[in-house]
Design goal:
217 residues; seven-stranded antiparallel β-sheet; single chain; 6 helices
Length: 217
């Protein structure tokens, strides 16, 4: 069975009209760093009465980081016309477009007619990006930074090799107001996580948790 490829999916990018922005990883990263964190630390003693350290305003946040490697060597050897004329610049551009706010689609009729007024068009907003990392993790994310190191160029100075360090935050439901796709992806992945946590009980039994509990009691 062929290994799945990770990807970024943005179906509302509006590239060239209505085309989505989909970046399939040429090579899966060899490691992914994940940092789950509670949104608020337990309060310190303030002599203001008892408080519960268990109370949290929202689900845990999580950030992720990894490095993507892109290389046009194989594509050039296969005679790929896009690689021959632009190297890996299309892939780098598609990654960077995931961070570009989308312009509002509504028109400001007052400005078109020459009339003045206080009405403003809706502000630009970042696109909803889904991070696909296998069938059990499809997460709505915001890419917070990219660090691009281009290591080789063709005769037109198009990059043909590059390493891209990616940092992203997983978006929470309170950050996805009105975003049906993002909320669906978040709820799906959280549901899978709960199922996986339940399956861990089978590991606990195999590792002898019952005997350990008997000893502690």
């Amino acid at each position: 069975m062929a290994a799945l490829k990770g990807a970024f999916l943005n179906f509302g990018a509006g590239l060239l009209g209505a085309l989505p922005n989909i970046v399939v990883f040429q090579f899966n990263p060899t490691q992914v760093s994940r940092t789950p964190a509670i949104p608020r630390r337990p309060p310190a003693c303030t002599n203001s009465g008892a408080t519960s350290a268990k109370q949290q305003p929202c689900p845990p946040s999580e950030s992720m980081s990894f490095t993507l490697r892109i290389d046009a060597t194989d594509l050039l050897a296969q005679g790929n016309p896009i690689a021959a004329t632009s190297g890996m610049l299309p892939t780098l551009s598609a990654l960077e477009m995931l961070m570009v706010p989308q312009s509002p689609t509504s028109l400001n009729l007052l400005s078109l007619s020459g009339s003045s007024g206080s009405h403003q068009s809706p502000p630009s907003s970042l696109p909803t990006v889904l991070f696909f990392w296998g069938p059990f993790r499809i997460l709505p994310v915001a890419i917070t930074s990219l660090s691009v190191t281009e290591t080789e160029y063709d005769t037109l100075l198009n990059p043909i090799r590059a390493d891209v360090s990616v940092n992203l935050d997983i978006l929470q439901p309170n950050q996805l107001a009105g975003d049906t796709l993002g909320n669906a992806a978040y709820n799906y992945s959280m549901g899978v996580k709960q199922v996986m946590a339940a399956l861990n009980l089978a590991y606990a039994v195999q590792f002898g948790v019952s005997s350990s509990l008997s000893f502690s009691l």
